[in-house]
Each structure stands twice: as structure tokens, then as C-alpha cells.
Design a protein that fits this description.
This protein is of the alpha+beta class and about 775 residues long. The protein contains 14 helices and 40 strands. The relative contact order is 0.15.
């Protein structure tokens, strides 16, 4: 259902990059900035693979099986109703396959609350995803998020409070040693907050969850600054506060007052009391909290640095306009959730379990029956700090989130029951696809193949299966910008591996879609249709009854992983469940009716500025880049809508549209570059659910360039689009929709959404008054 074209990128080892003239003394962060821009600006370096290459997957001669896949260790709720974890963002030298030396990267370290000295994952210095989190619908998610990054370990400018500039932007001032006079390359035309910045700030987006976007929920507006000085005793004390006042309640807190006073004082100091008493100068009070200390002592050396600070010892201080404490105070005084924290933050929300409250046959879209529960399936979590999502995902700040429904009719319970009835066991394999590097590596020419795609941090690992076995593979595309397509091939002839898809983007198929396999991920094609960044695919994979080595390879014959079929055969051979035994889709995932409110088209595009700079192209939505506090789409709670998402961009990029909190169904797809008779597809029943979907590019000419509108040189004459239906139910609050090529999102291709009970209320208007994030 997606356009055939695939983004063309290149990869090169760090030494090779140096060999082609990259200045050796440049920091990895500066390389990232330059290469991120060349990768996402729509210039000549970003081309498209011909669709014929995607469909021609060459046979390869396989080597001896590479190392066996190392499963990522899990933190599991284990039937307790509570997923309890401590997730710390830390940095260190990490081993990346194919790199000649270790790279300084940020990564997730996962702990259980009862053992804060030894992480569950990672267990080595190998780069890769964070720990897999596994829980069940109805569980309470209780995570202490820590930011313990040591900013001194990174060269170059990282953030306005970390030797940056007064504007807060990361900068590249020299990128071509052959032209040393060419300076001030970046940010060039980019403007705050839509430029690369805040790379050491942290938060977590729980991608695919239908939970509260506010307070301690899936709140991507929260901004946690680093505190590398936290001790284990500090974390134990913080964990105790969170447990007593937040986690024991098991839900997202209602407002700021729901947080422990001890932790609020630890963060903010007792400045609230001082202001209530009418004091005009509360500097000495707020400096007792971490936010005040951060404002007073951050190692800032950019324009406007204040050497005197507040009389505290330390290096130059933040300029007044950049201090975090006044912004937090303004939010709290106006009844809003403060956005800025230092070192720690509580995450707590309940994964909603759907219970039908009324007549399921009532077609009224406002009927309580139409409210959602959480779709059990394969989801994921990742850093979502605007301005640094791309660099942090390239560092590896992502991990799997598996949400199960083990009830007899649930997705997991019914699959287990089918194989239990055959006295067989269904093993699971979680596969997180990533590109891990301290650069984006898109500078050099070469073969039109993607950068190495790591699987759980490994390069082309081997999955072991027994002859005749069926496994459930949960695949997550956690890359920044790579579209994946792959096929199974036997290495030495014989019967190939076979597969059928069971879920898309963490939402199971209906029995009809399981039978018909509408997305083409079946047979020898585990990723037959394109898997865009952020997409997930669940597959049942069946090994043949004979032993042998198999490869899963991307176009051009490059392997992404191997499957070694070995040992004793399973007898009788495990089969795919017949459609009648496949789990019935839950009521709340039934098709959304067509008679819903139609919102005006939302248009993804870009503008080429009159500049010779490589940042000349700026990506936008509805001719606007992300704006502080500007609500682009305002919805009423417990309603459903149909949106038309249009791709007017002339770069030919199929921008992956992603919306938080609520999944959606595709009802119509227009791809002007599809074969004749297949350009417009309409779907009236058994609609597939998604939370990320690549918008087809506009009509192209014979050379592969998008044909511009003669009346507007920045827009496609015949743009691609899709129509989607979604429900804005259960949760009010602020969240976002954006392009999931994350450097596009960092540079402004994002919108702020708001859901309110009454869009005209003062409460709704007050909630929308937020700063950049």
C-alpha cells in the first residue's frame, strides 16, 4: 500500500569518512549535523532507488552462519499488574559492528527498582537498543526516568546550557577543509526551535500507546536536563518518593499537585513559599532546587553569559531569557504542567483495558461504545526531544515495548491456545532494526544501498529454528530514515522459509485480513511492502522440514539476518492457524464508520529558499513549520474524524506520517506513480490499523523528478495522498503529529494537536499555552 521508491543513502566507516577529507578534529556531533542536513534537505545527494531494484532480490551464496542473535533482555510485569523499571539515559564508549573504534554514544540502561547497581540491559559495551519492556493490557507502567549524561564527554556545542549559543542551537561553522573560508554553515536558514539542539535533554515517547499524553503519561513536552552527579542513594530516595505518591496510585497524576512535595522541592526549591509571601526577589530560594542551580551554574559560554550569576560559585551563567526556572514558575502559577526538570522524572500511566459499556451495534460515533482500549501488540519507546530525536535514535535510544493480551480470546492468548492444542510451543523473537552511529554517513557516493541495518545491535545475526517450527517475529523499524524491504532466500536450494503477517503497527489483523494478507508481507516476503521508519510488523515464520541456512536480504542481495534451520525436526510440522482459529479482533478495533467529520486536507511539503546553503530546503506542514504553542489541529473529545494527508513535496520523499496516542485506519490511497489502474485504491471494510504511514510522493516525470505545479513552483502538480479515520477518545491534552524521518521533525515538520472536552473553554485555551520542546 506504499509507494515503491526508497530513500538512497550511503554508509562509510569513520576512517573512510576521514579519508575523503572530513576534518579529523571535527567532533562527531558536528559531523552528525552536516550529514543530517545533506540527508534531509532534498538536495542531489538524496536520490531514489528505482522500483525495479526493490523487486529484484538476488540469490546469494551464504557463508557459515554468523553469530547467533542475542535477544535483548526484558523487564517484564510478570502478571503483577505493574511494569516497574528505572530507565537511565547514560553515555559511554560503545562498540558498533563495522566501526574501527568505539564511539561515544548515549544509550538506555534499564534496571529493576530492587537492584540499582546492576542493569538488566545492556550487559556489555555493545551498542544497541534499550531493554525490552513487556506488560499486559490493564497494567500500570511505573518508570523512573533518569538523565545521567555527562555532557563533558561530548565535543562541540550540545545545548544552550552546555557551551552553546544564546539561541540554543547546535552549530557547524566549518565543514569543508578545501574551503576553510566557508563558515557559519549551520544553522543558516533554520530558526529556533526547528533546528538541531538539546541533544543531551531527555524524555520518552511510548510509540503506539493509547494513554494520557499529559502529566506523567506519554508526555513528549517534558524536558529532563542531565545530572551526571546523581548517586545510587539519590536514585533510591527519588524512587521512594515516586513510589509512595505516584506509582502506588497506578495512574497518570492529575496535575502538578499530584507529585511528591519532597521531589518538587528537590527540583524547584521552596520558591513557591517565597512568592506567596510577596517577596520580589526569590533567587536565594529557587537556587536551592536543581532547576535554580542549573540556571545559575550551567557551563554556558555563549553570547549574553552572565559571569556574576546569583553570587554562586561556578562558570559563567545562563542569560536571563534562557533560564528554565521562570518558565516553570509561569506554568505552575497558571495551573499548567511545568516542562523542565533536572536528572529525574516520574512516568506513570495505566494501559487501558477495554470493557464494552453499551450496545456494540450502535453506530453513533459519540456513543461510549466507540471508545478505545489499548491494542495489544508490538510497540516501542524512544527519545522524543524536539531538536534531537534523530541524533538520539542514531545513538540507539530506542527499545521494544510489548503489550500483551493473554486472555483466552486475546491476541496472545488465542495464538498460544491454538499451538497448545497441538502440544506445541510458539516462541517469540523481538527484532529491533537500527542504524547506530555518531554520524549519519550520507556524504560519500557509492553503491545505492542503505547503511548497515543492525538487528538488536548486531550485524547480520543468525536466528535459530528447528525444521518445521513456527516462530512469532516482532519486527520494529527504529531507524531514523530508512525504508526496509526484504525477502527470504534459501542459501543452497530447497524449500524456503514461509511467513504470514498477523499485525501491523502493533494492531492485530482482522480474521479477513489475516486470510487475505493485504499488505504483501507473506510467503517469502517478510517485508514485501515497504516498512517505513516507525512501522512494526508481526509475522508468523515457518521453517521448512529440512535443515539448512537461509538469508533475509534487502534489495541488491545484502543480508540483514540469517536463519539457521538445525537440530531435530518438530513433528508434526507446526502450521499457521487457519483464519477461524486466528484471534478475533476486539470490538474497539472494528471499522470506523465513514460518516465522520471531514477535516481540511493536511499538506506535507517543503520550500526551497533563495540560498546556496545546503539547508536551503525547509520542510513544513500546511506551509508552516512547528511553532511554539500554536495549536494546528483542535479536536473535541470522544469524536471521530477523517483526515486527508497530502504529499506536495517536490523532493520525491514519501514522508512517513505519524500521530501520537490514537491509531488510524486507511480508507483511501492515491499513488500517482503506481501502475495504471492501481493509482487510486479505496477500502470500505476490514480496514488496516496504522500509527505511521508513508505518504506517496507526487507524480514524477521520466527522469524521476516530481512534476511541479505551474502555478506554485514549491508544490507537486499531482500530489499523492491518503485518507485516514481515527478517534480522539478517552484522553484530553496536547500531543503531536509529524514526519517520522526524524531529522525532518527536528527541523520543523511537526504540528501540535490538542483534544479538549470543550474547545471553546478557558481551560482548553490555558492548556495550549506551552513553550517549545
Amino acid at each position: 500500500m506504499a509507494e515503491d521508491d526508497e530513500v538512497k543513502v550511503q554508509h562509510v566507516d569513520t576512517k573512510a569518512a576521514s579519508a575523503i577529507g572530513e576534518e579529523k578534529t571535527s567532533s562527531a556531533r558536528r559531523r552528525f549535523l552536516y550529514q543530517a542536513l545533506t540527508a534531509t534537505s532534498g538536495i542531489a545527494l538524496l536520490e531514489l532507488l528505482p522500483s525495479s531494484l526493490l523487486k529484484a532480490v538476488a540469490q546469494v551464496n551464504c557463508p557459515n552462519p554468523p553469530p547467533t542473535l542475542v535477544p535483548v533482555r526484558e523487564i517484564d510485569s510478570k502478571g503483577t499488574g505493574k511494569l516497574q523499571a528505572v530507565i537511565s539515559v547514560v553515555n559511554g564508549n560503545r562498540t558498533v559492528p563495522g566501526m574501527s573504534k568505539q564511539l561515544m554514544l548515549r544509550h538506555y540502561a534499564g534496571y529493576t527498582p530492587d537492584n540499582l547497581t546492576k542493569p538488566v540491559w545492556p550487559t556489555t559495551s555493545n551498542a544497541g537498543p534499550g531493554p525490552t519492556l513487556r506488560c499486559e493490557v490493564g497494567d500500570s507502567v511505573q518508570i523512573t526516568l533518569l538523565n545521567q549524561v555527562d555532557v563533558a564527554a561530548f565535543q562541540g556545542s550540545l545545548y544552550s546550557g552546555e557551551k552553546g549559543t544564546a539561541t540554543g542551537c547546535d552549530e557547524v561553522t566549518k565543514f569543508d577543509p578545501k574551503n576553510p573560508a566557508d563558515t557559519n554553515f549551520y544553522p543558516a536558514n533554520d530558526k529556533f526551535p526547528n533546528w538541531f539542539h538539546a541533544s543531551s535533554a531527555a524524555n520518552i515517547h511510548f510509540h503506539g500507546t493509547h494513554v494520557s499524553p499529559s502529566t506523567t503519561g506519554d508526555n513528549v513536552l517534558a524536558n529532563i536536563q542531565p545530572d551526571a552527579n546523581q548517586t545510587v542513594d539519590d536514585v533510591k530516595r527519588i524512587q521512594g518518593w515516586f513510589q509512595k505518591y505516584v506509582f502506588d496510585k497506578g495512574e497518570a497524576v492529575k496535575d502538578w499537585n499530584g507529585l511528591p512535595q519532597e521531589w518538587k522541592d528537590y527540583q524547584m526549591g521552596r520558591w513557591q513559599d517565597a512568592w506567596k509571601k510577596g517577596r520580589k526577589d526569590s533567587n536565594q530560594d529557587f537556587s536551592k532546587g536543581l532547576i535554580g542551580v542549573y540556571d545559575s551554574t550551567a557551563p554556558y559560554t555563549g553570547p549574553g553569559a552572565n559571569p556574576s550569576g546569583h553570587g554562586l560559585p561556578g562558570p559563567p551563567k545562563y542569560p536571563k531569557e534562557l533560564r528554565l526556572w521562570p518558565k516553570n514558575k509561569g506554568a505552575i502559577d497558571n495551573g499548567r504542567w511545568p516542562q523542565y526538570y533536572v536528572g529525574s522524572y516520574p512516568i506513570c500511566f495505566r494501559i487501558p483495558k477495554y470493557v464494552p459499556p453499551c450496545d456494540p451495534n450502535n453506530p453513533d460515533i459519540n456513543n461510549p461504545c466507540m471508545r478505545m482500549g489499548q491494542a495489544p501488540g508490538t510497540h516501542w519507546y524512544h527519545s522524543h526531544k524536539h531538536g534531537s530525536t534523530s541524533v538520539n535514535l542514531f545513538n540507539g535510544l530506542a527499545g521494544a515495548l510489548i503489550i500483551e493480551d493473554k486472555s483466552p480470546t486475546g491476541y496472545d492468548g488465542a495464538l498460544k491456545a491454538y499451538y497448545d492444542s497441538k502440544n506445541q510451543k510458539l516462541d517469540q523473537v523481538v527484532l529491533v532494526f537500527q542504524q547506530i552511529t555518531d554520524t549519519i554517513n550520507m556524504l560519500v557516493g557509492g553503491s545505492p544501498s542503505p547503511p548497515p541495518t543492525f538487528v538488536n545491535g548486531q550485524l547480520t545475526p543468525t536466528i535459530e529454528m528447528r525444521p518445521g517450527q513456527v516462530q512469532l517475529w516482532r519486527m520494529i523499524n527504529a531507524t531514523v530514515s530508512t525504508f526496509l524491504t526484504a525477502q527470504f532466500q534459501p542459501c543452497s536450494g530447497g524449500a524456503p522459509l514461509q511467513c504470514v503477517q498477523t499485525a501491523q503497527d502493533g494492531v492485530q489483523f482482522s480474521q479477513t485480513n489475516y486470510k487475505n494478507q493485504p499488505l504483501g508481507n507473506k510467503g517469502q516476503n517478510p517485508i514485501g511492502d515497504r516498512m517505513a521508519p516507525a512501522n512494526r510488523i508481526d509475522l508468523l515464520v515457518q521453517a521448512p522440514t529440512t535443515k539448512g541456512l537461509h538469508v533475509m536480504q534487502i534489495p541488491g542481495g545484502k543480508p540483514i539476518l540469517y536463519v539457521n534451520v538445525k537440530d531435530d525436526a518438530i513433528s508434526p510440522q507446526m502450521q499457521f492457524p487457519p483464519p477461524g482459529d486466528f484471534p478475533v479482533i476486539p470490538l474497539f478495533l472494528a471499522d470506523i464508520p465513514a460518516n465522520v467529520r471531514k477535516r481540511p486536507a493536511i499538506r506535507y511539503g517543503s520550500v526551497k529558499l533563495n540560498s546556496t546553503s545546503l539547508t536551503a530546503r525547509q520542510f513544513n506542514i500546511d506551509d508552516r513549520q512547528f511553532v511554539d504553542g500554536h495549536i494546528d489541529q483542535l479536536m473535541t473529545l470522544d469524536t471521530a474524524e477523517e483526515w486527508t494527508i497530502v504529499n506536495e513535496d517536490l523532493t520525491g520523499i514519501a514522508h512517513p506520517f505519524h500521530i501520537h496516542i490514537n491509531p488510524f485506519q486507511i480508507s483511501e490511497l492515491y499513488n500517482p506513480n503506481a501502475p495504471s489502474g492501481q493509482q487510486l485504491l479505496k477500502f470500505d471494510k476490514d480496514l488496516v490499523w496504522w500509527d505511521a504511514f508513508a505518504i506517496p510522493a507526487g507524480k514524477k516525470d521520466g527522469s524521476g523528478k516530481v512534476i511541479p505545479d505551474p502555478n506554485n513552483k514549491n508544490k507537486a502538480k499531482d500530489p499523492g495522498y491518503f485518507k485516514m479515520r481515527t478517534r480522539f477518545v478517552d484522553f484530553t491534552g496536547l500531543y503531536v503529529q509529524h514526519c517520522h524521518i526524524l531529522a525532518h521533525e527536528d527541523r520543523g515538520m511537526m504540528q501540535l494537536l490538542q483534544v479538549c472536552r470543550d474547545p471553546n473553554s478557558e481551560e482548553c485555551k490555558k492548556q495550549a499555552n506551552v513553550e517549545h520542546h
